[in-house]
Amino acid sequence: MIKVTTLDRREIVLNAELIERLESVPETVITLTSGKKVLVTQTVDEIIARVIAYRRQVLQQASSQDEVK
């Protein structure tokens, strides 16, 4: 899950696994796998960085759980 800010300044949380496409128009349009589109204030590069950080965190948590077993 990643936090983003909509154009009306609401902070929302998106499931990063459902992102299909990012476009800069010049706002950033996030297209979800459902076809729903979300306009956000973050740049495409910021969204990519947040998705990478989210996935890194998920992998680290999975790795630490494997070490406990």
TrEMBL record:
This is Swarming motility protein SwrD. The lineage of its organism: Bacteria, Bacillati, Bacillota, Clostridia, Neomoorellales.
